[in-house]
Amino acid sequence: MDEHLSRAASAIREAEHVAVMTGAGVSAESRIPTFRDTMEGLWKEFDPQTLATPEAFAGDPETVSRWYDWRRLKCLEAEPNPGHLALAELERMIVARGGRFTLLTQNVDRLHQKAGSRNVVELHGTIMVWRCTECGREFEPAPEAFDAFPVPSECHEGALLRPCVVWFGEMLPEQAVSVAHEASSTCDVFISIGTSSVVYPAAGFIESASMRGASTGEVNPAETPMSTRVDWRLEGPSGAMLPRLVKAIAST
Ligand code: BJW
Predict the structure, then answer these.
(1) CA 94, CA 104: separation in Å to the nearest integer?
(2) What distance lies between CA 249 and its chain's CA centroid?
């Protein structure tokens, strides 16, 4: 582990451009269940992989809206954990020395922004913004539970609001994908943190960076399909590993 930590620290110290991809594991220590965790309470009989689809929303918009509203409120209450804060600190350190830092996230919870990260690219959208299914107009709902389900649009009678997240089978936001391609083709270091690396195209960006010769690393308590392909691996929760990494980078 210490050998991997020092390999990671020296690669990041020497890098001009560091790109990071985060997933749900980064927010696990902020008490937001990961996507492939079993869900709690009311929702435990539902499978997230079947709720996060346009077909589920078309078939049962009330259940899908209630699920996203429940998660939206959980995200609003959540606070960034030491992993989020360490990534914000890493960005400040790299920018202060004239380098670039790109944080690509699959998370919809906005905790990176709450922690102070600046250059955040939301590949799967955000749960904090909803849009009219008729005209696409976007709203940031008040920080309280919706009082009607499915949530009616305010601009088009009979239309519904849906969360501005990317469901399976939907295209990712064009601008976000373009920034992710640019980052994976120019970075010197690419780090994958708290993601199972099974959902594409997000999982493919580290592969492109690796094929170009960037130093690649993973931070995760469990193995993923990328684990045997990265140059270094910090095995453990990001809330513990990332502060250690930032300390190691700063210490020389
Ligand atoms: C910790 C920790 C701690 C725990 N610290 N770590 C190529 C091949 C095969 C399939 C495809 C392909 N290209 C496209 C596809 C289809 C599909 C796909 O990838 N399917 C696969 C499942 C096979 N992709 C799409 O449909 C995408 N669209 C697309 O490609 O459009 C073009 C197209 C259209 C039609 C046909 C073909 C192409 C869209 C993907 C959208 C994903 N959306 C979701 C829902 C977002 C909204 C919501 O939140 O509800 O995004 S699904 C879900 O998975 C969510 C997540 O962002 C995403 C990734 O999950 P993540 O973050 O990795 O979480 P987990 O739970 O899986 O893992 C947590 C990890 O944390 C674990 O590893 C733990 O060990 C770790 N951990 N505690 C650090 N403390």
Answers:
(1) 16
(2) 23
Establish whether 17 is a catalytic residue.
Answer: no
What letter would DSSP give residue 32? P
Whole-number Å distance between alpha carbons of 125 and 55:
18
**CA 126 to centroid of ligand 1, rounded, Å:** 14
Pocket test for ligand 1, best of 29, 30, 32, 35 (most atoms within 8 A of CB): 35
Catalytic residue, candidates 4, 84, 112, 124: 124
Give the mean model confidence (pLDDT) for residues 58-64. Answer: 96
Q: Which two tokens stand for residue 204?
A: 């493919």
* Residues near 70 by beta carbon (within 8 Å), at least 6 away in sequence: 42, 43
Angle at Cα 153 formed by Cα 151 and Cα 157, nearest 5°? Answer: 120
DSSP calls for 78-122: ----HHHHHHHHHHHHHHHTT-EEEEEE---S-HHHHHT--SEEE
pLDDT digits (tens, 9 = 90+) for 76-132: 999 999 999 999 999 999 999 999 999 999 999 999 999 999 999 999 999 999 999
Categorise residue 202: left if φ over 0, alpha if ψ from -120 to 50, beta otherwise. alpha
**Considering the chain, what is the average pLDDT of its residues?**
96
pLDDT at 69 over 70: yes
